[in-house]
UniProtKB/TrEMBL annotation:
SUPFAM superfamilies: 6-phosphogluconate dehydrogenase C-terminal domain-like, NAD(P)-binding Rossmann-fold domains
Sequence ranges assigned to domain 6-phosphogluconate dehydrogenase C-terminal in this UniProt record: 178-467
Lineage: Bacteria, Bacillati, Actinomycetota, Actinomycetes, Micrococcales
Family: Belongs to the 6-phosphogluconate dehydrogenase family.
Subunit structure: Homodimer.
Keywords: Gluconate utilization, NADP, Oxidoreductase, Pentose shunt
Alphabetical list of Pfam families matching this protein: 6PGD, NAD_binding_2
Name the UniProt record assigns to this protein: 6-phosphogluconate dehydrogenase, decarboxylating
Length: 475
């Protein structure tokens, strides 16, 4: 048994991860349900390094040096459970099973407990960066026991993306923490994509700009604070011309966004935790709205009552959109990090948010220059309760608040939907407010359901006899 790590499930992500391990000098055991994929990996990419192919799961496991490290890269869900069930009787105490798929973290918690009972380590790990990242260096978010990370960490750090020589991989926390953080990463990815889409729509509708022109604006933005993978690919996509029609490619793509579910999970979990992740939620619902075909067909008759949009200073408008995009983006991250903090506190995960920002700087879909600033913010104050209130971000976002308000107001006046821009601004004004109208909500609740309220001038919980003489009593 000489393989240092094994990969089972050789669809594109598994294949590329296996190649990445091999390219870093590891002897890699490879296995797939149908042998054809294993054979073609070795035939096509044998010169990447040292592969040990096996037809059966038993031979695959036998080819691994102990403690065995088996990476499962299959479709999240039932397939993962089936592979685990096959592996359990073949493995021995101390072996490490790594699930690198987009698993839902409650499943990871269940599997971790199950494998622990067998004396095995289970590492649920987020892997971001798509096919390209898997091959050339992804961002890796491993959970599980600290002990398993001692064995596994160096290998994963080795194959991960590097930024300034620092690996985009670190131990996240126990059981489901790695997959949880990957889930929130994807939620932020949804928000980021929606915000970019709204910026594109504003430029298109406000300026009547072509895809080509908007692509140039994004390319310009990518030179500044907004520099990121998603802005870069947006510029690239907008410049692309459809071969068949000769039109801009985006103009021939159907406007219905799909999803595989990680954004939905993020929002569901945030509701359970009571954390307002409005940017991610609006982004997820915006995808749902785009796919609400009967409603959209029926909705075409709705009156707009909006005027013709005339923008006199194009350059100023473009700069306003840029500032609004940046500010809304900070809100989405601020909310996502709140969710990580809340789950970490509830489940005892002890997640270091600054470290998460650090491993998202490279390799992953949301990689961006400004993640450096987020890491710095949490280094300044590891207990930071609101990322927006870090002095750097307070100043940066503060400079754009006027622009943000103008953009949201103009969008509303001109009938352009900007759910993520608008809700992010509402969140900003909400957390900033000295006093929110929640006082009235509490009074109403007490009125119709004796749900009680607290007072601003003394401690305690109170109830007013609304139907009687309206005296107040301690509840
Ligand atoms: C990544 C991506 C990856 C995948 C998303 C797409 O980090 O590499 O997030 O996980 O592309 O799951 O999600 P939707 O299909 O839901 O848009």
């Amino acid at each position: 048994a000489r393989a240092q790590i094994g990969v089972t499930g050789l669809a594109v992500m598994g294949r590329n991860l296996a190649r990445n391990f091999a390219r870093h000098g590891y002897t890699v055991a490879v296995h797939n349900r149908s042998y054809a994929k294993t054979a073609s990996l070795v035939a096509d990419h044998g010169d990447d390094g040292d592969f040990v192919p096996s037809e059966s799961m038993a031979d695959f496991v036998a080819s691994l040096a102990r403690p065995r490290k088996v990476v499962i890269m299959v479709k999240a869900g039932a397939a993962t459970d089936a592979v685990i069930a096959e592996l359990i009787p073949l493995l021995e105490e101390g072996d490490i099973v790594i699930d690198a798929g987009n698993a839902h973290f409650p499943d990871t918690r269940r599997r971790e407990a199950e494998l622990k009972a067998h004396g095995l380590h289970f590492v649920g790990t987020g892997v971001s960066g798509g096919e390209e990242g898997a091959l050339n260096g992804p961002s890796i978010m491993p959970g599980g026991s600290p002990e398993s990370y001692e064995w596994l960490g160096p290998i994963l750090e080795d194959i991960s993306a590097k930024v300034d020589g620092v690996p985009c991989c670190t131990y996240v926390g126990p059981d489901g923490a790695g997959h949880f953080v990957k889930m929130v990463h994807n939620g932020i990815e949804y928000a980021d994509m929606q915000l970019i889409a709204e910026a594109y729509d504003l430029l298109k509708q406000g300026l009547g700009a072509s895809a080509q022109e908007i692509g140039e604006i994004f390319a310009e933005w990518n030179k500044g604070d907004l520099e990121s993978f998603l802005i870069e690919i947006t510029a690239d996509v907008l410049a692309h011309v459809d071969a068949e029609t000769g039109n801009a490619f985006v103009d021939v793509v159907l406007d219905r966004a799909e999803q595989k579910g990680t954004g939905r999970w993020t929002v569901q979990n945030a509701l359970d935790l009571g954390v307002p992740i409005t940017g991610i939620a609006e982004a997820t619902f915006a995808r749902a709205l785009s796919g609400s075909v009967p409603q959209r067909e029926a909705g075409r008759v709705l009156p707009a009552e909006s005027g013709a949009w005339e923008i006199s200073d194009r350059a100023a408008f473009i700069e306003d959109v840029r500032l609004a995009l940046y500010a809304s983006k900070v809100v989405a991250y601020s909310q996502g990090f709140d969710q990580i903090a809340a789950a970490s506190a509830e489940l005892g995960w002890n997640i270091d948010r600054g470290a998460m920002a650090r491993i998202w700087r490279g390799g992953c879909i949301i990689r961006a220059r400004f993640l450096n600033r987020i890491t710095e913010a949490y280094e300044r104050n590891p207990e930071l309760s609101l990322l927006l209130a870090d002095p750097y971000f307070t100043e940066q976002v503060g400079q754009g608040v006027g622009a943000w308000r103008r953009i949201v107001a103009q969008a509303a006046l001109n009938g352009v939907p900007t759910p993520a821009f608008s809700s992010s601004l509402a969140y900003y004004d909400g957390v900033r407010a000295e006093r929110l109208p929640a006082n009235l909500i509490q009074a109403q609740r007490d009125f119709f359901g004796a749900h009680t309220y607290q007072r601003i001038d003394k401690d305690g919980v109170f109830h007013t006899e609304w139907t009687g003489d309206r005296t107040e009593s301690d509840a």
